[in-house]
Every structure is written in C-alpha cells, then in structure tokens.
Automatic annotation (TrEMBL):
Keyword NAD: no
Organism whose genome encodes this protein: Acidaminobacter hydrogenoformans DSM 2784
One Gene Ontology CC term in the entry: plasma membrane
Pfam families, per database record: NQR2_RnfD_RnfE
Protein name: Na+-transporting NADH:ubiquinone oxidoreductase subunit B
Transmembrane segments: 14-32, 38-55, 67-97, 176-201, 213-230, 236-254, 266-295
Keywords noted in UniProt: Flavoprotein, FMN, Membrane, Phosphoprotein, Translocase, Transmembrane, Transmembrane helix, Transport, Ubiquinone
Any one biological process term the GO annotation gives: electron transport chain
Keyword Phosphoprotein set for record: yes
Length: 326
C-alpha cells in the first residue's frame, strides 16, 4: 500500500492540456446523466493508473500522466449506466494490451483508450449497446440526481441507433447541445468543437488529422447520400451523431498512434472518415468511428514511410535534373 501511495508521475504538459479541454465535457456528462458519471470516470482512472503502475514498479519508472488522459477518454466513450466492473476490466485491458505490451508510453501502435473500449464493446455488448439513459434538462439537470432514468423505448435510444431502426432523426439543436442519449462525453457537439478549437490553438492536437477525418467523412457520406443509399443519413446529421466529433478531436489525434508527417496525417484522417461511413452504413455497428480509428492506427506507420519514400524520390529527381542541366 505504501508503494502505491508513494508512486511518482511523469509530468507531461501536453497531456494536461487535453484534460483541460475535457473538463467542460466531464461537467456536461454530470449535467446530462447524473453524478454517477464522475464515479465511472474515477473508477477508470484508478484502475488505469494501477495497471500502468504494476508495470512501472519493477523498473522504478514513474507512471505517465498520459494514463489519466487514456482513462478519462475511455470512460467518456461508455454509456452512463456501464457497470463499474466492466469499466475496470476495459481500462486494464486497454493499458496492458494497448500500451504496456508494446513497451509503454511512446511505443504503442494502437490508441489504448480505444483498445479498451473495443474490448468491452465486443465482450459485454448488452451494457454497451442496449442500456442508455435519458438526458436531463432544465435546472439543476443531472446535478440533482445520481443517475437519470433508463430509456424506455428504442425511439429514445442514441440518434444513430434510432435512425437505423426507424429512419427518424433527432433534432439538430438537441444533438448540438447534447440533449440526447449516448455515451458520457459524445453527446454535446458544441462542447467537443470548442475543445477541438482549444487543442488546435494550443498546438496540442493535429489540425491536419482533424481536417482529414472530416473531409473523408463528408465526402464519402455525401456520395452515398446523394446516390440514395438509405443506410447513410444526411452528412450533417451524421457529423453531429455517434461520437464522430469526439473521435475526431480526441482519439484520431493521439500523437503516438497516428502518423508524424503532415501529409500522412491528411491521408490517415481521410481514411478514418471514409471507413467510418462504410462501417456505419453496412456493418452491424451504429457508430463506426472507434473501429475506423483502430484501422487507421494500423496504417499509420506505413503512411509515414510512404510519404518519406515519395519525398526522397522527388528530391532525387530534382537533384538528377539539376546535374543534367549543369
């Protein structure tokens, strides 16, 4: 116990900026769904830190502050009523197999928060796909309750699930402000956009990656929608629904699991946006952005290598051309 209480943390200013950007979204999750949101986040943080500490203690290295970001991001992708034990299992899996198995911070191939989310999504689908809660409204909202009531019909489930089952679309103001059922941090489009602006302004997250995801998504969804593919909603509705913005701002921009060159970031982002539309329209998963980012993570290293290769080829041609002229 004394070892745990005396654990040291590696200071990472960049990670703290991400937490600052997440603070309003965390408060919004409490307003919409109740104080259980804070407990769910706290459980994820606790077990995420302990999982990383279990690996660091042998080498006597400090726990990274990045694990706090991983745990908070992971918990914000969970429905409000997710059992605490499911949240704990997921974050432990994400930290161990999405991060420490590759050698720890800076070496992971996949976004560890999404590794954990994908694991609980396929392992405990009942809690992640069918149990949603009604968003609170008015004053004091969720600040006056532990947990808001569960939805009583499919018509009041998340906007994308409702669209898939009935073709009905939520009101744009509701999905913009967050007055819809969904995961803790994915409902309020306005707060996520403001967070994205802050992260770009402070040079904490890549604007190229964000721009690529939005470009790829809007282009592909417009093509499908314009050609009459009924499974794909109009691009604007899809943009504000299903965690697309949250994934774009906070997950796709993870500096470790995404490409390093600006050109590769654009390609990477476009790939994620395109794959998101395809998964949403034709797979069993209503969201799509989670698996799209993990697929993008797979291609990130080779995209950097391809950009480097083409740049070297261009440089070589320019040099050869100069030699011939001389």
């Amino acid at each position: 116990m004394s070892e745990i209480l005396g654990m040291k943390f590696m200071k990472q200013a960049l990670m703290r900026k991400v937490l600052y950007a997440l603070a309003p979204i965390i408060l919004a999750s409490v307003y919409f769904f109740g104080w259980r949101s804070i407990l769910l986040i706290a459980v994820s943080v606790l077990f995420g830190v302990l999982a990383e500490w279990a690996f660091k203690r042998r080498s006597k290295k400090p726990v990274t502050e990045a694990v706090f970001v991983t745990a908070v991001l992971y918990s914000l992708t969970l429905p409000p009523a997710t059992p605490f034990w499911v949240a704990a299992v997921g974050i432990i899996f994400g930290v161990v197999f999405g991060k420490e198995a590759f050698g720890g911070f800076g070496r992971n191939v996949f976004n560890p928060a999404l590794v954990g989310r994908a694991f609980v999504y396929v392992s405990f689908p009942k809690f992640l796909t069918t149990e949603w809660n009604v968003p609170a409204s008015g004053f004091p909202g969720g600040f006056g309750t532990y947990l808001t009531p569960q939805v009583d019909a499919l018509s009041t489930a998340t906007p994308l699930i409702t669209y898939r089952s009935s073709g009905l679309m939520a009101e744009y103001l509701d999905i913009a402000f967050g007055r819809v059922s969904g995961s803790l941090g994915e409902t309020s489009a306005i707060l996520i956009i403001l967070a994205g602006i802050y992260l770009i302004y402070t040079k904490t997250a890549s604007k190229e990656t964000m721009g690529g995801v939005l470009l790829g998504y809007l282009a592909m969804s417009t093509i499908f929608f314009a050609t009459g593919v009924s499974q794909v909603p109009n691009p604007l509705f899809g943009l504000f629904s299903g965690g697309l913005l949250f994934g774009t701002v906070f997950m796709a921009t993870d500096p470790i699991s995404s490409p390093k060159s600006n050109e590769a970031k654009w390609i990477y982002g476009i790939l994620i946006g395109v794959v998101t539309v395809v998964i949403r329209g034709f797979a069993l998963f209503a969201g799509g952005i989670m698996f799209a980012i993990l697929i993008g993570n797979t291609f990130a290293p080779i995209l950097d290598e391809l950009v480097k290769y083409f740049k070297s080829q261009k440089t070589a041609k320019a040099q050869n051309g100069g030699e011939k002229i001389g």
